[in-house]
Protein 1
Amino acid sequence: MKKQTKVVLVSGLILLGVLMNSGQVLAYEAGDVDPIQNNQQILDKVDNGDIELKGWIGTFDPTEAPDPEQPTPSDTDASWVNVMMPVTVLFGSLESDKGSVYGPTYEIKNNSVKGVKVSAQNVTAVANAIDSGLDLNMVADNGAVTIPLVKTDGSLLDTATEVKALTTGGSVDFTLQGQFSGVYPTVETGPLTPKYNLSLKFDVQ
């Protein structure tokens, strides 16, 4: 089987604010060469013969190396992806922070037997988006990668940008950081509560 890189899945994170290398897989796809070695028999001077019909029907587990005698998805199939990531990512800023925006640290982990490249694909506004004054970035891989998600003019990420290529069992940390240059609301008026959706793209490698 040839090593290929294919887009197989897109997923999303909700952003809430309060201001193994793929290698060769020993399993078969439809029409592949028989993966069982020495799988021949010679029938000599007989008028009949038997062939075992051995089936396997089930659900593919991308966290386990495929059995040579079991079917495997094609490289374009989303069945290869098994990634653990948060559902919701928080960010915020207090008036006393003087414009600093920050959040907890999160992790994206690859549980698949194949490598997976993680990219931030786009950001969309869900509710209460801030039109100007918010600068929000995804800071990943211990600060090695910074991806602008929301810019101060209100524009949002719309071009896929690589976060990190993860090997089997590999992970990448990330957090949200930025600045708020707008006017902080008072206790009486209540906080700003912007909500965005960050879509991630996974490429099997």
Protein 2
Amino acid sequence: MPEQTDHTSAPAAPQADQRSGRHAHDDAGAATRDIADVAAVEVITTAAVHLMSAAAVKCGLAEDLPGSPAAEHLDLDEARKLITALAALVTASAPDLGNQHARSLRDGLRSLQLAFREASPFPDAPGEGPGEKFTGPVS
């Protein structure tokens, strides 16, 4: 049985690295330098892909695995939030992403909006679905 982690406790104090004597905050500095080298378009695209993946799972589009059918992960309330956040991100960042990146993100977003509508037992009216206040009605 996997060990459960208590997420309510305070974060641990920086620990000294036995080999180098460095502290965890030195690692944070290295991570910050790494992030500084990443272009904004890549950060935005990565965030969008994470939102898409999570929304797809919550729409029941995940692959069925032994002992864990995709329908088990269906959560349309969560999917709505993720799709709306994705729509806002894609719409707001599209001018800065360039046509190639923006087009593929818009296509993925539209597919998720349609999958949400199909998975919903009571589909929203046109223009009222997740993210449609940013994208307009999807059909």
Protein 3
Amino acid sequence: MRKAGGAIDRRIRAASAAAAVAFALALAGCWFLTPRVLTVPGHPLPVAQYFPSARLAEPIRLRKGHIHTTQPFTIKEGNERWAVALGFVRSDVALSRDRKMNGGSDICWTDGPDEGMHFEACTNATPGFHVQWELLRDDGTVAVRHARDNLVRGAGGTYGTEAITRTLSGFRDQRPGVYRLRITVMRDAKELDFLKPHILLDRPFFDARTNG
């Protein structure tokens, strides 16, 4: 009876210790959860894995004349700052560094010819991307409109192990409320289909202010 009681006491102490550690991590801001990224229902791609800083990530067809309107999202505070970007899922993960540097990198497809990461060794002729995006208020009126052709003017972005993002532009200081993005494709870029293009509502890479 004493042995059984001792075993129960040890289990209780172990459970209490685990709870205390979890509580301490939560207080310290170290409670890790898979980020929630809005996307289309039934989308098979784990968008939070590829675009963890995004608020929204939806697949898009880069075909001239195609119009894509995202699901609604909420801006909670007037000082929020967001970037609109194209996201691409890398296909070159298994390639060696030398192979990437010698024309095999996906950067040869996602970057325009005048962008810093575009390698001289690239042998493909990228179609680039030319898209217009609009921030729509809940009543359908346009709050912000921008367009980007990365064959004419370079775009910033990020280069990750699994994904590449190219920034189209961004917006800030909008009234709290419900919004959507409407994207219009201005030029065909079917050559980029293999990179699974997505439209992203993303947190700016350099931003001193915190988004909600």
